[in-house]
Design brief:
The chain has 57 residues and is an all-alpha fold. It is built from one helix and no strands.
Length: 57
């Protein structure tokens, strides 16, 4: 492996490591939101079931 390939690989690994850290941070920030969205979805599903039952479907 030549020096250019080695350096490119190390830069890529470093960038990927930083991206992974950034993604972990985003995941942590959005966990609370996801829980809220799930609750919203349950409410919407209940409303949809009610509307379907009213319309006879």
């Amino acid at each position: 492996m030549d020096l250019c390939k080695v350096l490119t690989q190390r830069i890529t690994e470093t960038a990927n490591g930083q991206e992974i850290d950034d993604m972990r941070g985003e995941i942590a920030r959005y966990r609370h939101d996801i829980t809220g969205y799930e609750a919203d979805n349950r409410g919407i599903s209940a409303e949809l079931r009610e509307l379907k039952s009213r319309s006879g479907q």
